Amino acid sequence: MTAYFFADTAVLTGRTLRHVTRSVDTIITTVITPVAMMLMFVYVFGGAIDTGSVSYVTYMLPGILLITVASGISYTAYRLFTDMQSGIFERFHSMPIARSGVLWAHVVTSLVANLLSLVIVVGVALLMGFRSGAGVPAWLAVAGILFLFTLALTWIAVIPGLSAASVEGAGAFAYPLIFLPFISSAFVPTETMPAPVRWFAEHQPVTSVVDTIRALFTEQPLGDGIWIALAWCVGILVVAYVFAMASYRRKTG
Predict the structure, then answer these.
(1) Distance between CA 240 and CA 243 in Å, rounded?
(2) Is the CB of residue 148 less than 8 Å from the CB of residue 69?
(3) Membrane spanning segments where (predicted)?
(4) How far lies 165's CA from each of 77, 79, 100, 202, 252, in Å?
(5) Which pLDDT does position 88 carry in this prediction?
(6) What is the pLDDT at residue 43?
(7) How many angstroms separate the CA atoms of 187 and 183, rounded?
């Protein structure tokens, strides 16, 4: 049964990936916003923000990577909503294939599409002066954290993709996720914020993820931050998965 699940998911993932490759503009659109933000913050505001010995593009890149993911998963919700409205789910479920494979195909496609977007954004950051002395283990750790973060947000995207009443509603949920890094340590040190805002910034998931990735890039001690970041990612993933699967069962039951 497990072998059938993986085989069916692979075939269905190929289908959704073809939709992405035929619409390269979706990946371009996904990276335009974070790249524009990176250009603006580095070349307009960067000189006014003190980040010590770390260049500002290096300081703020982790936050831009998270915004890239948040921007990309809106298309996951859009593709899911479109498939639900077209009746493709019902047609697939009438075939002898794993029912959950249809959903997992969208999740895997989200991971692949976001990987491409992240690579493009890192490439632009390198052109802007981003440099890191981090070794292979540190880069693998960054990749692992971004993978978990993307997976968690993708399962959040599944919920509106299945339950939204309109295509606009399916994608609009991503706006708060894109905004969240602005109230974190992504662009300015939290010490410069007013006390209530600082408290929120220091106790929300984006800050712990950003600080961990930044420490890996700059070869700084990680402390307990990496475990907090992992706990946030895993916790969000589990909760989002439970609610997404419950919504999926209601829609297809």
Answers:
(1) 5
(2) no
(3) 24-45, 57-81, 102-130, 136-158, 170-188, 226-248
(4) 12, 14, 22, 35, 16
(5) 65
(6) 87
(7) 9
Cβ contact 41:124 at 8 Å: no
Q: Which residue's entry shows tokens 């981003």?
A: 130
Q: Determine the Cα–Cα distance for residues 30 and 146; give it in Å rounded to an integer.
A: 16
For the chain, residues with pLDDT lower than 50 are 1
Whole-number pLDDT of residue 18:
73
Q: Which two tokens stand for residue 174?
A: 């991503």
Those residues whose C-beta lies under 8 Å from the C-beta of residue 211, and which sit 6 or more positions away, are 62, 185, 225, 229
pLDDT at 122 (0 to 100): 94
Question: Cα(10)–Cα(26) distance, rounded to whole angstroms?
Answer: 22
3-state SS track over the chain: CHHHHHHHHHHHHHHHHHHHHHCHHHHHHHHHHHHHHHHHHHHHHHHHCCCCCCCHHHHHHHHHHHHHHHHHHHHHHHHHHHHHHHCHHHHHHCCCCCHHHHHHHHHHHHHHHHHHHHHHHHHHHHHCCCCCCCCHHHHHHHHHHHHHHHHHHHHHHHHHHHHCCCHHHHHHCHHHHHHHHHHCCCCCCHHHCCHHHHHHHHCCHHHHHHHHHHHHHCCCCCCCHHHHHHHHHHHHHHHHHHHHHHHHHHHHC
What tokens were used for 70?
């948040």
